[in-house]
Specification:
Rossmann fold; about 450 residues; about 15% strand; about 45% helix; 5-stranded parallel β-sheet; Helicase, Ruva Protein, domain 3; alpha/beta; 19 helices
C-alpha cells in the first residue's frame, strides 16, 4: 500500500492520533498544523487524500477546502468536525469535500471512507489507462492545467457539444483531441477543420460534401467532413469565420443529425459530436449581428476556457523539457537541457504567441545551442523584453510604506493574483499578506 495521505489539524494530540491510526493501516502519512503549511506541502508533493479538521485557529477547514479546490480540483478532502458543526461539514460536501466524519473519530468508519475514496482514485487511474486519459501533449502541473484536465474528464463521456475559448497558440485542438480520446467515441474518427483557413464560398462543400457538377470545379462527388467523422468527433476551429448561410446549415445539422451535400436533395444521417473553438468574443459578435445566437447556444452546452501561457508560468520548465526531448529525437540533436538564467528569462517573458511561440523559440535556440541552452542562445527580442523584468526602482528617501506597497502589488502581478504564491515569494504568511492588503488599501484591480 503506497497511498499518500495528508492530515491537517492544529490540535497536536488529535493530529498525531490520526497519523498513528493511518500509519497502522500502512498508509504513508504527512502532517500539517494549519492551512498555510498544508498548502506548501500540497504544492510540493502528490497526495491521494487530505484529511482536515474543520475548526482551526488561523484558517478554518472550509477556507482550506476552497484553497485546495482552487489549486487541485481533483484532490479528495475528508472534513473532520465536532457534532455541533456537522451542518458546516454538510456545507463543505456541497463545496467539494469528498466526505466528512464527526469527532470523536470512529476508526472503523474512517477506514471505510478512506477505502472507498481511494478505490475511486484507483478506478479513475484504471480508466485513464484503459481510455488513454494521459493527455500526453497537455503538459503542466499548474492550477489552470489541473482545472483544465478536470473539465476534460468531467465532459468527455457526456455526449454534448463543447465550445473551447482560447487565444491563438493555447492548444485548442489538443484539448479537442483529449476530449475525443477520453470519450466513448475514441475508436471512431477525429476530424479537425479550421473553418477560418477555408474560403467562405467553399466551407459548405468542405463540411457537408458536394455532388459532381454542383459548382465549377466539382468534378467528382465528395464526402464532407461530417460524413468522414461519422460515429466520432468533428472539431470546428475558428467558428466565428462562418457565413450566415453555413451557420444556418450547421444549426440544422445539430438539430436533425442529417446532412445534405451541396447540389443534392438527399439527406444523409450522421452521428457526430461537435467540439468547436474560437478566439473571439462571441457575445460581442452576436451583438454585432455576425453570429447567430441560436447556433451559439447549441454549441455552447459546455464551455472550456484555455489559459494563456503567461497565466501558467510554472509550467514553462516542463514545456521546455518536453520540447527539447521532442526536438532532440526529431532532429537528431543532443541538447541536455536549459540553464537557470535562460529559463528565468523565458519565465519573465510575456508570451503573446502562447505555447506555439514557446515551441518555436525552443526549436530556434536548439539550432544554435551547443550542449545546453543558455542566455546567449535566446533571441534578442526576448532578452530585451525581459531585461527590465520585474525590477522596481525608487529614488533615495522614498518612504518605506510606499516601497512595501509597490513591492506587494508588483509581486501579486507576477503571481497572477495568486495570494498564496505571492506570500511565499515575499517570505510572509498568507494572513500577513491579507493584513498588508488591508493596511495599504490595495484593491484587486491594482494587480489583476
Amino acid at each position: 500500500m503506497n497511498e499518500h495521505i495528508l492530515v491537517i489539524d492544529d490540535d497536536k494530540n488529535h493530529r498525531e492520533g490520526l497519523v498513528l491510526l493511518l500509519q497502522a493501516q500502512k498508509y504513508s502519512v504527512d502532517e500539517a498544523d494549519g492551512a498555510e503549511s498544508a498548502m506548501r506541502l500540497i504544492q510540493r508533493r502528490h497526495y491521494d487524500l487530505v484529511i482536515t479538521d474543520y475548526k482551526m485557529q488561523d484558517i478554518d477547514g472550509m477556507e482550506l477546502l476552497k484553497m485546495i479546490n482552487d489549486y487541485d480540483p481533483l484532490l479528495k478532502v475528508i472534513m473532520v468536525t465536532g457534532f455541533s458543526s456537522i451542518e458546516h461539514a454538510v456545507e463543505a460536501v456541497h463545496l467539494g469535500a469528498a466526505d466528512y466524519i464527526p469527532k470523536p473519530v470512529d476508526p472503523v468508519k474512517l477506514k471505510e471512507i478512506i477505502a472507498r475514496l481511494l478505490a475511486k482514485n484507483a478506478g479513475v487511474k484504471r480508466a485513464a489507462d484503459r481510455h488513454h486519459l494521459h493527455f500526453d501533449q497537455i503538459i503542466g502541473n499548474s492550477r489552470p492545467i489541473r482545472q483544465l484536465v478536470k473539465k476534460i474528464n468531467d465532459v468527455s463521456d457526456i455526449d454534448v457539444p463543447v465550445l473551447i475559448f482560447g487565444a491563438s497558440g493555447t492548444g485548442k485542438e489538443l484539448v479537442a483531441q483529449a476530449i475525443h480520446k477520453a470519450s466513448s467515441r475514441r475508436d471512431k474518427p477525429f476530424v479537425a477543420v479550421n473553418t477560418g483557413a477555408i474560403p467562405r464560398e467553399l466551407i459548405a462543400s468542405e463540411l457537408f460534401g458536394h455532388e459532381k457538377g454542383a459548382f465549377t470545379g466539382a468534378i467528382d462527388r465528395k464526402k464532407g467532413r461530417f460524413e468522414e467523422a461519422d460515429g466520432g468527433t468533428l472539431f470546428l476551429d475558428e467558428i466565428s469565420s462562418m457565413s450566415e448561410e453555413v451557420q444556418i446549415a450547421l444549426l440544422r445539422v445539430l438539430e436533425t443529425q442529417m446532412v445534405q451535400r451541396v447540389g443534392s436533395g438527399q439527406e444523409i444521417k450522421v452521428d457526430v459530436r461537435i467540439v468547436a473553438a474560437t478566439n473571439e468574443n462571441m457575445e460581442e459578435l452576436i451583438g454585432r449581428g455576425r453570429f447567430r445566437d441560436d447556433l451559439y447556444y447549441r454549441l455552447n452546452v459546455y464551455s472550456i476556457d484555455l489559459p494563456r501561457l503567461n497565466e501558467r508560468v510554472d509550467d514553462i520548465p516542463l514545456l521546455v523539457d518536453y520540447f527539447i526531448d521532442r526536438f532532440n529525437e526529431q532532429y537528431k540533436r543532443n541538447i541536455s537541457g536549459i540553464d537557470d538564467e535562460a529559463l528565468n528569462i523565458l519565465k519573465a517573458y510575456g508570451w503573446p504567441g502562447n505555447i506555439r511561440e514557446l515551441r518555436n523559440i525552443v526549436l530556434r535556440t536548439m539550432i544554435s545551442a551547443k550542449n545546453r541552452i543558455t542566455k546567449k542562445d535566446l533571441p534578442e527580442v526576448i532578452r530585451k523584453r525581459t531585461s527590465a523584468g520585474h525590477e522596481i526602482r525608487f529614488p533615495a528617501g522614498t518612504p518605506l510604506p510606499e516601497i512595501e506597497r509597490e513591492s506587494i502589488i508588483k509581486t501579486l502581478k507576477m503571481a497572477r493574483g495568486n495570494k498564496l504564491k505571492a506570500a511565499e515569494m515575499l517570505a510572509i504568511s498568507r494572513r500577513s499578506l491579507y493584513n498588508k492588503l488591508e493596511e495599504y488599501d490595495i484593491r484587486d484591480e491594482e494587480f489583476s
